[in-house]
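> example.struct
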């Protein structure tokens, strides 16, 4: 029987930042188990045919219900799962008065990762988890109240589950700043952010992927959050 390769499961990994995490995962020598909901066309265009054939697996699932099923699906693949990146997320405007929106966004952005992590910890005896949060969640805002609260909760869950899962699993968070504008976001506003951000730039994916690699390769770090935002949080 051929040896199983170590693999990383990336939620929402078929496009945008999730696809960047998948590409970096492959570059680091792992297989990539790419979870998606709707569409893998960007991944099929971006990842080389050889990698697609040898080291990439796709899992389709809407995380609104029974999110832990993605782990059952991953376990049926011929890989040895060692890592998990909770990247899938909802980024929409919404305020606390809209309780249905608050519940939905907390479910997808915080409770789904927490639940997937719990099931991951039951199945995986040695490995790591990285939750993708957001660098700009300290200060209250008016437009993205529910999103901010959901990512704050995910940050706290990171620390709590790091405590619960040690020493078998490490749990850390990566908190990006302005990397890729959301499809709903005003492009002019996104571009103008480089005037506000202390390092005067947006979209430094290279620094984000360096931080991802650093967390994977640092067995003595758990419960931490690394912000990769050019210092935006200092001024926000
Ligand atoms: N973009 C940035 O500059 C930035 C800045 C700060 C933090 N972040 C964080 O970084 C991560 C990636 O950002 P992004 O902008 O690339 O994310 P995104 O495009 O907003 O969403 C990532 C993925 O989440 C998936 N998703 C949402 N709801 C789902 C559901 N119910 N079931 C399954 N999948 C679902 C989407 O899948 P479908 O497309 O198939 O629906 C999408 O591909 C997110 O956690 C985000 O909060 C991003």
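> example.seq
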């Amino acid at each position: 029987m051929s040896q199983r390769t170590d693999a990383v499961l990336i939620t929402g990994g078929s496009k945008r930042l999730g696809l960047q995490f998948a590409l970096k995962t492959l570059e680091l020598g792992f297989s990539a188990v790419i979870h998606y909901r709707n569409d893998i066309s960007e991944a099929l265009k971006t990842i080389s045919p050889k990698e697609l054939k040898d080291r990439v697996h796709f899992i389709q699932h809407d995380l609104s219900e029974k999110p832990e099923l993605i782990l059952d699906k991953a376990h049926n693949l011929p890989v040895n799962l060692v890592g998990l990146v909770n990247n899938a997320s909802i980024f929409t405007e919404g305020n606390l008065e809209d309780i249905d929106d608050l519940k939905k966004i907390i479910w997808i952005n915080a409770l789904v990762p927490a639940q997937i992590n719990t099931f991951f910890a039951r199945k995986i005896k040695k490995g790591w988890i990285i939750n993708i949060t957001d660098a700009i969640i300290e200060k209250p805002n008016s437009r993205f109240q529910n999103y901010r609260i959901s990512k704050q909760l995910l940050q706290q869950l990171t620390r709590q589950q790091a405590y619960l899962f040690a020493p078998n699993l490490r749990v850390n968070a990566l908190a990006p700043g302005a990397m890729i504008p959301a499809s709903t976001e005003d492009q002019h506003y996104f571009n103008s952010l480089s005037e506000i951000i202390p390092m005067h730039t947006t979209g430094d994916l290279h620094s984000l992927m360096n931080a991802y690699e650093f967390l994977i390769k640092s067995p003595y770090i758990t419960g931490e959050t690394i912000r990769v935002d050019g210092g935006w949080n200092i001024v926000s």
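> remarks
Residues 5-227 form a domain with the Rossmann fold fold (CATH 3.40.50.720).
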